[in-house]
Amino acid sequence: MLPEALNKVIEALGHLPGVGPRTAERYAYFLFRSNSRISETIAESLGALHSGVKSCPKTFALIDSTESVSNLYSDPERDKSVILVVEEPLDIYSIEATKQYHGTYHVLGGAISPIDGITPDQLHIKELLDRVPEDQVTEIIIATNPSVEGESTALLLQKLLIEKFPDLKITRLARGLPLGVDLSYADQTTISAALQNRTKL
Prior knowledge:
This protein has helices at residues 4-13, 21-33, 36-52, 71-74, 91-96, 125-134, 148-164, 188-196, and strands at residues 53-55, 62-64, 79-86, 103-107, 139-142, 169-172. By secondary structure, it is an alpha/beta fold. The longest helix is centred in the N-terminal third of the chain and has 17 residues, at 36-52.
C-alpha cells in the first residue's frame, strides 16, 4: 500500500488529459524525490490559477484577472474589422507566433460534438454574431480544427453568418500538404484538402 499522501497526488494528477495511472505514479514519485520547493511552486501556481486568469468578455481569450479586455482587442494597431475564429484560447498563440495576422480574435470555447454533449448554444456563437455590427466587421476568418467536429462547427458558422450578414466576407484558413511531408505519408483527408485548395503557379 502506498502512503495516503502519495495516493492523493496520483489521483489528482490522473485527472489531467493524457495522463494514465502509470504516468500519474511516475509524476508523483518524481515530485516526492525532487526538492520540495518544486512541489511548493507548483502548488502555489495552481492555487493562483483560477483567481489570476479569466476570459475576455469580448473575445473570450485568456487574460489576467486585472485586465478588462484582451490587449489583442484593445490594441489600436489591431484591425477590429477582421475577426479570426478559433475553437480554444491556446489556438490564438499559434496564429500570433506567425506575426502575419493583425486583426482580432473570437474564441468559440470548443466545437460542436453531440457525442461529448457540446451543442451550438454552449459555444460563443451569439457573441460572435453580435460583434459583427458592433465592430463593423468586414471579414470573418474561420480557423476551426480540421476534424469532423471542427468542420461541422465551421459549416454552421458559415450558414448563420450568411443568413444574417449576406455581404460579409467569410474565409477559411487554407488546408493541405504541409512543407516537408512526403506525399506517400499524407492521409486522404489532407490530400483531399490539398486538391481543393490548389493554387495556380
